[in-house]
Design a protein that fits this description.
nine-stranded parallel β-sheet; 8 helices; globular
Amino acid sequence: MSITKTKQLAAMVCLLLLTAVATSWAQKKITVPKDFPTIQRALGEAEEGDTVFVRKGTYKENITLVDDVALVGEDMLTTIIDGRRKGPVVIGADGALITGFTIQNGTTGILCKNTRPIIDRNLIIDNKGTGVHALVTLPDITNNIIYRNEWTGIFLEAVRGTRTSISNNVILENGYSGIFAANRTEVLVRNNVIAGNKQYGIFLGPDARRTRINSNNFHRNRLHYNANADSESVRQTNISVSPQFRSPGYPRFDYTLGSSSECRGRGEDGVDIGILALGTQQTPVKTASPEEQAFAAAVSEAFDSRPQEPVYSYQEPEPVYAPVIRDDAPPAITSTVVLHGLTFFSSESSEIESGSHYVLDDIYNSLVYYPDLKIEIAGHTDNQGADDFNMSLSLNRARSVMNYLVSKGIAPDRIRARGYGKERPVESNETAEGRAANRRVEVIPR
């Protein structure tokens, strides 16, 4: 080999080494609590491509992810982020990864407003509202256990997902439904075990009917799906069998499939339905070169050889503040709101007129802004017609209002629908004006 070629080769090797060093410097690994005492402080110091690694412990804080930063817990069951019922436990960010955590005790587990993080291999449990709430865009939601949240496992609000899906999760024993899709949601739901949810496995609002529901296992929900989700395709491509988990529930929460489970190989493309074993991929991934693998192994070994911190518990200090009422806050419902019958419904019908939605949206905004507000929706009629018909009509009108609010994301346990027929007039039924006043739906704070 000539001297010139030797010099060129040496220069190339030096350039490659400098590139590797620069890459390793640019992509930091930050450890909590060693480098920073809180997860949020560590995320505040992270930049694109960095990893925040969190040791075992309970961290009582509410956090916001950072674009293109990975947040990695040491162990899913013992690395706990506890939201203390003070809002969402985690707020998503584009390109972020969150994996290896128990996410619990928030008003919402993970809230994603038009962001697309990767939510992978977490236990999302015991949140007051929903486990994962997505608006507009769909995160990648894969291999999670979404368990016993008080309202719904996953709530989708006007969500379109073209590059992402809800895949290979175990979604079980949530208070209302496993998945609730509202407004014009259109996503792919595939290869999930959806089991034991109190009302529906999956609920699609009337504008969410194009959501694809493929190769899931619906098991022991009160109802597997509502009418908008029930189609010949859904019945043919989904199954209902005992998933046969290895060791479900407390304390192990092992929801991987047993060796004889009928969910094995029954998903799309022949993969399992439910949580995939570590290292299993649904689609092929690029294989690193031997040099890349060796470099990654050396970095990982250096990182893992550092002294282990003890199991850590951190509680964010309680903030001291005066309550603030925003200038644009919706009015609180402190007295009865009357919705007059023929304004909202056609004669002898319980279908809400579309021109009335703006009034119901005002009620929805109040329920969102005041989370402790609960209401009764009471239907009433005049004295025209049979008693049984009037009682049924009044109840169905109350339920229509309730279903509209629930379809937009209000928890059903905050709303009570009642029908009183002609029993509670507010004016005389002897005049047309009096009968018109008696045909009404009331929204009553309770």
